[in-house]
Structure formats: C-alpha cells, structure tokens
Amino acid sequence: MQRRIEHLLKRRSGRPSNTIERHYANFTYQAKSWSKPRTVVAKVEWHPGELFPRVGFVVTTLTVSDECVFEFYNQRGTAEQYIKEGKHALKWTRLSCHSFKANDVRLQLHALGYNLANFARTLVLPNSIADWSLASMRERLIKIGAKAIRHARSIILQLAEVAVARALWAEMLATISGLKAKAQAP
C-alpha cells in the first residue's frame, strides 16, 4: 500500500507550511480473505512542526469524493463514541426485565437520562468542567453526599464539596436560571 501513496509521503521542498496540509488518494486492494477488491482511501496530513505525516486508511464501498469518505467515517466514529459513553456511564444495555415492554420503557428512560445529561453538559456546565464525561458527571454531580435541612420557609441542601466546589454549583444554577428566563421571555 505504501507504494500507492509514496508521492504523498514525501515532504514538499521549500519552507514548511504553517497550516495542515491534507492530501488524499484512492486505489483498489484485495486482501487474501476478501472475495473481491475494495476501494481504499488514504489521507495523509502534514502538521506544522511535525517531522512525519499522519496517515489514515479507510476501506469503503462509498462512491463519493475522498474527502467525503473521511468526513462520513469521522462522523460515524463520533456517534459510536457517544453510544459507548451511554453504555458505560448509564448502563443502558442492561435490560434485564422479563417482558419486552418493560425493557422498552427502561431503554427509553436510559435515552432520556442520556439526553438530559448531554443537555446539562452542553448548556449548563462551566467551561472549567465542560469536558467531563457522563461517568464523571454521574459520580461528581449526582452520586454525592448531601444533607437536607428544613427550616420554616425553606429547605437547604448541604452538598459535600469534595467533587464540586460551591462556586461551580452557583455558576451552574445561575446558568439554569438564565435558561429559564430566556425560555419565558416573549
């Protein structure tokens, strides 16, 4: 395969670029175990300051441009990361009920929880913790120790500050209030 993209693996002469240089090539290839040849699309990226290129290959049946092939498979990879995150953080593949209907409801509840957690992650979490995984959110925001103190006119929740500091909670609650105000505005 290297022979087929050899021309892309050689650094251009002259001053290196300050931007990423991307080059694509496609060719047909047939592994011994395959019944017929397949199209292989190669992407070679030269990044500023790096000595060697980054090379990726995709075997595909798509009949679109090489750039579109990589765009499609990159989006698919991102979707699979979200599915994996839901499986591990929310255990949404654990459908142990005896009836189909009960498992259906359970899966829908998992999907609702996943969507609510993503909503919180994208719209509510402060920038300092916006990259938390769903598992981190579950462990640090939901499964934390708290004490409810009831007064005559209010209930106060005292949360353990081990996972999230008071200032971060205040920032998240202010963001939620701002979202509510925007939704109620005419």
Q: Could you explain how this protein is built, in words?
A:
The chain is α+β, with helices and mostly antiparallel strands and 186 residues long. It has 2 domains: 2-61, no CATH class; 82-184, no CATH class. It is built from 4 helices and 5 strands, in the order βββαααββα. The protein has helices spanning 66-90, 100-123, 134-142, 166-184, and strands at residues 21-29, 38-46, 54-60, 146-150, 155-159. The strands form 2 sheets. Strands 1-2-3 form a 3-stranded antiparallel β-sheet, covered by helices on one side. α1 packs parallel to α3. The chain is elongated, with a radius of gyration of 25 Å. The protein starts with 20 loop residues before the first strand and ends with a helix.
